[in-house]
Amino acid sequence: MPQNAVEPLRFAHLPLFFAAVCFSFGVLISRHFWTNPALLFIAVILCAVISALAVYKALRPTLLPVAAMFFLLGAFCEEVRPFPDPQTALTTLADGTERVVEGEVSMTSAVRHVESALPFSNKTRQEQSQQIQLQIASVSSNEGTLLPVTGGLSLTLYAPPDAVFPTISCGDKLRVPVSLRLPDHYLDPGVWDERAWLLGQGIGAIAGAKLNAVIITQKAVRTSFPCWLHSLQQRASSRLIAFAGDAPEGFFRLNHQDATMLTAMLTGDRSYLSRGVRLGFERTGAFHLLVVSGMHLAIFAGLVFFLARALRIPRPAATFATVVIAFAYALFTGYGQPVQRSFWMITLYLTGRLLWRERSAMNSIGFAALGLLVANPDALFDAGFQMTLLTVLATAGIAVPVAEKSFAPYLRAMRNLWTLQIDPSLPPRVAQFRVSLRMMVQHACLLPGAYAAEIIAPATALFLRFLELLLVSVIIEMAMALPMALYFHRITATGIPVNLLIVPLLGVLLPLAMLTLLAIVFLPAVAFVPSAMTAAILHLAIFPVEKFSRSAAGDLRLPTPSIFVVIAWMVCVAFAIWIVRQQRFSVSTALLSLFLGAAVILGWRKSSEAPGRIEITALDVGQGDCILVVSPQGKTLLIDAGGIVGASPDAKFDIGEDVVSQTLWARGIRRLDAVAITHAHADHIGGMPAVLSNFHPAELWVGHNPDSAAYDHVLQEARELGIYLQVHAAGDAFQFGGMQVRVLSPAPDYVPKATPGNDDSLVLRVSYGNTSALLEGDAEAPSEARMLSPGGLHSDLLKVGHHGSKTSTTPAFLQAVSPSYAVISVGRHNYYGHPKLETLEKLEGAHALTYRTDLLGASTFYLDGRHITTAAWNHAGQ
Q1: Nearest to 165 by CA among 202, 132, 124, 194
Q2: CA spacing 20 to 30 A to 302: which of 381, 618, 714, 871?
């Protein structure tokens, strides 16, 4: 904590802080309302002239024109900012057709042994793979001629386990036949847009290819600096992974999982991290401790600055050395966007401290934020930037003033405790604290052994340091309520105890881990010494993460906040920053205001109910099925949970966790009343284990399914969670939350084949009043024929069977249902060519207005008992 008094929240004291605020509002307003950049530029110049005249005439700036100048400057920078190249030509060709691509390698990864699934199959095989980024120069057209096309391609090469990978280096030129496709993009509310993120990284398409199909047309003459830097990072990561190898478990030994975490911490390479490790840290709100983040770079820079000052290097030279060494480390970690942002934040902050001699932390923060936003106004909308800035703002803006008005003066009073001449210069209460502490020590000296006298002062200092860490942790957790709800739909109550335990250890772990890495690279014979200490500290840090991550109470899921909730939170935080600098009742009022801001986020409830009507939403889960049904009384039923056929066992993407759960949480759904499995194909149940674990439904509805590994896994998960298993067959009818549910298939005497099949599908018809919907999973012609006999199939909405394949939606069945609306759950450019043209023609001939999730995203239908209305997420939000 700084030793200076709390700075007043006034423009004269914090000009750059207020300038950054005005600039941010300008960027925000310009994002929603377009203004001619030329007019904005003229207005900025005009306000600058008025401000200069005010300074010249009154010898002090006038707030209004200065604020207007920075507001208009923010709007201008937002209007003229460059957009990522949309790579339109490349994305047009990424339609799954095999094409010949030529380009230059810009980045490579290490060759790894992986367990992969065969395409659209559950069979797996061992093979080698290597990830390559290619800057494309040309792509073959449908006619086979090479077209000049620019863009970025993420290419994965595969080879048998015993194959010898050729050395592919940055700068090499390749020719390879590939089936280009676009990165996955799920059009559901609350789901992360991987395609937009990759486009920001310069990647417009992805593909896979066999190694023997790759032709190196030209080797690189020399290696560029970025390539050399990336290869250095890779070699360091590989050496660390190899050093751990298959080491046995041990408190003082680094195992393979430990090495994957250290590579993420030290080099920024997250590709080795398993999904289980990531989830544990995410559930406890400690993922920022696992990877290279602003905290890691700040600890590293703080260590360098501390050593420089300990060597009595002048402050300007120490600042310069810290910036240079931090920049070298940032480059080594790959200099990705989060690291870039953290580095410039640290650099500008240190520069600000140098300029203002540590008198104004808030002004230094404003200086850093303003510099970053001028360079890239779009950073204002980046989750990482917001969370980094909010963390330092909560610390300097609220935690520091609270500490200064409570325990911080006593902590500083611990220095030179026995120098009596200091006492008269201190406030009376602080001087009395020093006197009382010395008296306690002197009295303790009279006790036998006198051990108490030796520990009183250090124990008091340790307690005050703990209060400091606790205060900062609590304030940051409350301030982070909004971004956690907005971007991750969660708040982690366990984040406070976990951070209290881990953050102090991280200050020791990071230097030890760096020492271990250097020893592995340069002195492997002695690397076991620092690695043993690193392993011990790392295991101590992992222990609370593993314990707290198993606590369901610590991971509260939140809906996406409304604009009114966001504004209320901003008002509470701004008021806390202002009131804490006042004279009376400032600390309690500021903490109460911050608590109210967090309570607004926690208390916000986004109703998932549609009273008096059924809501049926077909989620976009790619080539799979997932239907959300909300009954007129608000009961929730999820039918299937999507999945990827042929997903690799090593895959870090889980459609149940990363798509379905995110969408439900964004909707404000924390629990499901029931889930149903139509049948046991992977594209219907692949995401179900994550859904069961996250939403703990009361019931699981199934039909007649054969045993399979995936289906048995779902049933085992349900048993462990105490979910009631309900087996249904044709003829069953029951009420569910005010709507009627009738089971149409499978027949009671249906016997499934040895392996899961489409005709195993559990077909449901839900109705309310005079409106109804028929949800048929993947039922095909035989199943549809059996459903015709009992009759009563007419429905306003048909969830088309088997993704619109020609084996479903027979003319007789379609005539019996006679829907006004139809919805097809299907993936873009899928391998099967669904939906088939003849199915679309049949639906058109039946005058059914058809919705497709691959084109429209999540599509919602409302059945109010008399009419059916529709809405598509893509129309409203994309």
Answers
A1: 132
A2: 381
User: ∠ CA(296), CA(302), CA(305), 5° rounding?
Assistant: 145
What would the pLDDT profile of 420-471 be if each residue is shown by its tens digit? Answer: 888 888 888 888 888 888 888 877 776 665 566 678 888 888 888 888 888 8
Structure tokens belonging to residue 654: 């889980």
**Paired tokens of 273:** 């991290």
CA distance 759 to 773: 19
The H or E element that residue 114 is part of is strand 112-117
CB atoms within 10 A of CB 227: 19
Question: Number of helices (H) and strands (E), helices first, in the chain?
Answer: 33, 24
Sort 449 into a burial class: Cβ within 10 Å, 0-12 / 13-18 / 19+: exposed
Cα 875 vs. chain centroid, distance in angstroms?
24
What confidence tens digit (pLDDT) does each residue in 317-350 have?
A: 888 888 888 888 887 776 666 677 777 777 777 7
Which are the contacts of 3, defined by CB distance < 8 A and separation ≥ 6? 412
Q: What is the largest CA-CA distance in the chain?
A: 101
Q: How far apart are CA 360 and CA 428, in angstroms?
A: 26
19: left (phi over 0), alpha (psi -120 to 50) or beta: alpha
CB 621 within 8 A of CB 655: yes
For the chain, the residue count is 878
CA distance 147 to 92: 12
Contact 188, 858 (CB under 8 A): yes
pLDDT at position 617, please? 95
DSSP state letters, 233-274: HHHHHHHHHHHHTTPPP-TTS--HHHHHHHHHHHH---TT--
Position 129 scores a pLDDT of 86
> β-pairing, 112-117 with 95-108?
unpaired
DSSP structural state of residue 284: T
Rounded to a whole number, what is the distance in angstroms from the first to the last CA of the chain? 45
Per DSSP bridges, beta strands 490-492 and 821-824 are unpaired
Sequence-distant (6+) residues with CB within 8 A of 823 are: 618, 797, 798, 799, 800, 850, 851, 852, 853, 859, 861
Contact present, 644 and 686 (Cβ < 8 Å): yes
Are β-strands 636-639 and 627-630 bridged in parallel, bridged antiparallel, or unpaired? Answer: antiparallel
Rounded CA separation 20/393 (Å)? 12
List Cβ neighbours of 707 (8 Å cut-off, separation of 6 or more). none
Q: DSSP letters of 165-218? A: -----TT-EEEEEEEEEPPP---STT---HHHHHHHTT--EEEEEEGGG-EEEE
CA distance 116 to 255: 24
Query: Is 773 strand, coil or helix?
Result: strand
- 99 SS3 class: strand
CA-CA distance, 464 to 741, in Å (whole number)?
62
Pairing of strands 797-799, 821-824: parallel
The residues that bridge with 616 in the sheet, in sequence order, are 629, 861
Q: What is the DSSP string of 445-498?
A: TTSTT-HHHHHHHHHHHHHHHHHHHHHHHHHHHHHTHHHIIIIISEEETTHHHH
**Cα–Cα dist 723/772, whole Å:** 28
Nearest to 737 by CA among 767, 771, 780: 767
> Which tens digit of pLDDT belongs to each residue from 285-312?
666 666 666 667 777 887 888 888 788 8
| CA–CA dist 164, 621 (Å, integer) | 37
Instruction: For the sheet with 724-727, list strands across it.
Output: 724-727, 699-702, 674-676, 636-639, 627-630, 614-618, 859-863, 868-872
- Cis peptide bond upstream of 835, omega within 30: yes
Tell me what pLDDT residue 3 has.
45
| pLDDT for the residue numbered 128 | 86
